[in-house]
Amino acid sequence: MIDLSLRLARRDFTLDVALPLPMQGVTALFGPSGCGKTTLLRALAGLERAAGRVALGDEVWQDDAAGRFVPPHQRSLGYVIQESALFPHLDVAANLAYGRRRAGADGARVDLPALVDLLGIGALMARRPATLSGGERQRVAIARALATGPQLLLMDEPLAALDAPRKAEILPYLERLSRTLALPVVYVTHAIDEVARLADHLLLLDAGRVRAAGPLHALLARPDLAWAGPDEAGVVIDATVAAHDEAYGLSQVRFAGGTLWLGRVAREIGAPVRVRVPARDVSLVVERPARTSILNVLPGVVTDVHAQGQTATVRLVCGQSAADTSAAPLLARVTRRSAEALQLHPGQVLFAQIKSVSLM
Ligand SMILES: Nc1ncnc2c1ncn2[C@@H]1O[C@H](COP(=O)(O)OP(=O)(O)OP(=O)(O)O)[C@@H](O)[C@H]1O
């Protein structure tokens, strides 16, 4: 457990956060601009002097009550920012070697060739940073941060400076990284697609305070958290590939709530996949539609209706039957008028028509 209790007051802003963060997986720090994400990350690293306590398991980095404050360079952490600085006069190999040397004994633990392989930078070893693309540079920066053998990896919008194609190129590496390495990652981002793809846990900040925190799936399925903007609400679902339909270029995936069709995915039957269902692409019907162009229609039971302004976000659980308790949640975004016309209420049985499902 990462034990965090930090308070920092600025003129118009106060960071006040106290909660445990998990020691495994990727925790995404999410929230509107200026809510304190970078400040929290820097305070965690000791780069910003907040009051309170920071402990990584048994290792106490800050404890004001005991007069303890470990300076940032003595904390075993990697820190990757938007445009990480590499040594321009050193090639990639020498940049990595520097990271490793800096770590001393910790660095000796690191399997550098495995790291190079994981980030796909083997072919870049003799290149100078100025000759690398933005995405390649970030991959090297991540490798260098990890070459120090850190116990915690902090990433502050590592993809924000990249255009969409570069971002798409680097995301699979980050995904592999988070699945392969056994170290906790705290990842600041504005982008819901990065959250949906990479995160295991979510910490939602609002004006310096924790608005919500918990496992990704549960938090994304909360209808009251319209935090990501109305178009960004939606759940992510862990599923496995169940079938391919080559003739129509489709794949079917199975999850706790049933099955879904989506565009052909290049994965074998049985492979685990994470898919995203945006709330705006889910509509609700009271009776099972007899003839519809929508491929995915799932029965579900309403658990929550959260109206705000002219829209309502509806949480429902889908299963093969209404009594199926292992069922998975979905969010649907409908107009408030429709919510009233259909008299949506908890316990109601209906059907979700899902217009789009995308592979993460
Ligand atoms: N060095 C600083 N001096 C004074 N105020 C600062 C400083 N850095 C940030 N702030 C203020 O502290 C608050 C939190 O800023 P912070 O950068 O942590 O937010 P953020 O959530 O990371 O924002 P963004 O998503 O825009 O990067 C903001 O009100 C910001 O204006």
What kind of sheet is the major sheet? 6 strands, mixed
Instruction: Tell me the series of helices and strands, N- to C-terminal.
Output: EEEHEEEEHHHHEHEHEEHEEEEEEEEHEE
Q: Would you state the CATH class of the largest domain?
A: Alpha Beta
- Counting helices, strands and paired strands, the structural category is alpha+beta
Individual helix count? 9
Question: Which structural traits does this protein have?
Answer:
alpha+beta, cell membrane, OB fold (Dihydrolipoamide Acetyltransferase, E2P), globular, cell inner membrane, 2 domains, translocase, binds adenosine-5'-triphosphate, Rossmann fold, 360 residues, molybdate ion transmembrane transporter activity
Characterization of the model:
The chain has two domains: 226 residues, Rossmann fold (3-Layer(aba) Sandwich); 120 residues, RNA polymerase II/Efflux pump adaptor protein, barrel-sandwich hybrid domain (OB fold (Dihydrolipoamide Acetyltransferase, E2P), Beta Barrel). The chain is 22% helix and 37% strand. The protein is built from nine helices and 21 strands. The strands form four sheets. It has a six-stranded mixed beta sheet, with helices on both faces. Helix 2 packs parallel to helix 5. It binds adenosine-5'-triphosphate. The site of adenosine-5'-triphosphate has 12 residues, from helix 1. This is Molybdenum ABC transporter ATP-binding protein.
